[in-house]
Structure prediction request, 138 residues.
Amino acid sequence: MNLHLEIITPEKIVYKDDVSEVTVKTDNGQISILPGHVNLLTKVLPCEMIVKKDNQEHFLAITGGFLEINNNNLNLLADYAIRAEDIEIAKIQEAQKKAENMMKDKASEKEFRVAEAELQKALLQLHVASKRGKRKTS
Prediction:
């Protein structure tokens, strides 16, 4: 028995496949979802999502959203999501520098918060990208 996982952002479907386990951070803490999990609707916090399929771990950066679990179907409506293998490290490092500079040169509290959110997003993506090629087998 498997789980069917779909990760959807406003732009596209980021992931759609049958998997054996999903680990994600919610507002109630980190949870691992296996086949037969109780039905649930929960808020997802910015995190590294781990998806297990065919005895391998796949990593994604998620910046938040909502997860519905219903009869082994998982639907994650995410603000932003990207697979580790799709992260362009040079581009993200540039975004990190830009956000850090914006925080230093802030013109307003709102601009500081926006820059801080962009910095957190960049750091999360760099962390997830570092997992590329480190897929563990069970």
About this structure: Residues 109-129 form the longest helix (21 residues). The chain has two domains: 3-84, 87-129. The first strand starts at residue 3 and ends at 8. The beta strands are 3-8, 13-19, 21-26, 29-33, 40-44, 47-53, 56-62, 65-70, 73-78, 81-83.
